Amino acid sequence: MAGHRGLVMGVANDRSIAWAIARALGDQGAELAFTYQDTTFRKRVVPLAETLGSRIVLPCDVSDEGSIDTLFDALRKEWDSLDFVVHSIAYSDKNELKGQYLDTTWDNFSSTMDISCFSFTMIAKRAANLMNSGGSLLTLTYSGSERVVPRYNVMGVAKAALEASVRYLAVDLGSKGIRVNAISSGPMRTLAGAAISSARYIYGWSQENAPLRRSVRPEEVGTAAIYLLSDLSGAVTGEVHHVDCGYNIVGMKAIGPKPDETESSAPRAAAKSADAPVALAASGTSVVGNETALDHALVVYHETVRQARERYDEALRQAREAGEAAIDRLRTIVGEPTIGQVLRASDQKAAYTFEDLLRCGHGGLFGPGNARLPLPPLLMFDRIVRVAEDGGKHGKGEIVAELDINPRLWFFEPHFETDPVMPGCLGLDAMWQLLGFYLGWLGAPGRGRARGVGEVKFTGQVLPMAGKVKYMVSIRRVILRRLVLGVADAVMEADGRPIFEAKNLRVNLIASTDEF
User: Fold this and answer.
1) Given the residues 36, 91, 101, 152, the one annotated as active site
2) Cβ neighbours of residue 514 under 8 Å, at least 6 residues apart?
3) Is 312 among the catalytic positions?
């Protein structure tokens, strides 16, 4: 690739597929230019580009056609020709990458298609004008375009359109000596992949069932890109090249070398860990008190997760002591706050007892320095009966909790003498507490602080003779970047009767309260 100039679009951090490709190209002597979407990404991209000797790092928001024009005008001032472009850009609202494709909204469908598909066509049109002696265009896709992958939803439709675009662009630009191809890589642990609600499951499934029995490594995508961007593939265009350890050829789940034994219910050695499941209903096997191969794998997995979680918590604690710059560096290395969600997968439950809530209050649930609940008497619920990334009024997640009412609760007597009633502010505080817990449950680091509420409407009161208060918090939006913020609506009921409603509750998790 020495003597070749190319533009790489879509580097988010040093774990991006785009970065793996860029590094491989740089190692082969290519001269590179990079783009970034906004100032947050610029802080990550510039240091990476410098490691490859690149001084050309330009802004580009592919949802804005004018921004694309500005990019190529600036690039033309630097270079008089272009040999290749790497397009590794995709976006969809993560809240719609769960549930059913049927529930896709028009706004998200159109923005997903615009950014994930049409942007490649707009870039190809402008890049072609700089490819004076031919060239190569490369984009990234995924097998969710060919077959249904759970929760990939509208992104699968966009990737299918992107692959069709590759074929049509190959015909349109072939006469100019410009080749157009795509790489369909297997799932990897990237920032983009973390947006898929079932990413961990998909990653594990493909790893277990691919012919090579492993996941693809980023550097393997990089070397495949060299083939498609160089003269090595001089007669290849309009292709979707799979780099997925062969997973795309598989038609069913792997069953191992001895199907008769694999499918039987014969137990192996007795389980020695309390963490090992006692039943494998998913496989139709009922093994109580004994260990199967899957049991053993889960025991190893839980131990690995526990150790990784402890190391991450310690690194985060040290970063907080060192200041904001160190926290940014840690998040860049491990891939943003979503790393917490990966490390805490084994602890993530759908319901929590009062004892669990106390453990959270003492810092034992989400790790040192992370979100924790108030302790009694300011803890305003006795249990969480449901927490999920789907459901709720907006279909984007919910958390439901309950408080048992009795006349001896601390707030009745001092609120209004001879007129015992639960203060509305305590119910509102409970909603903030639950929203902060939800952010911690997602794996985001930091301490929770209420940021406000848009509107509160009271329609009733809670008296000492009530039986149970129920809080239902419906997630509207979650931001898991440097800013960790949750926005939600909530309703409080007493014995099934609405008491008050709050809209646009806001809570964020912050690393330091010094400047709050």
Assistant:
1) 152
2) none
3) no
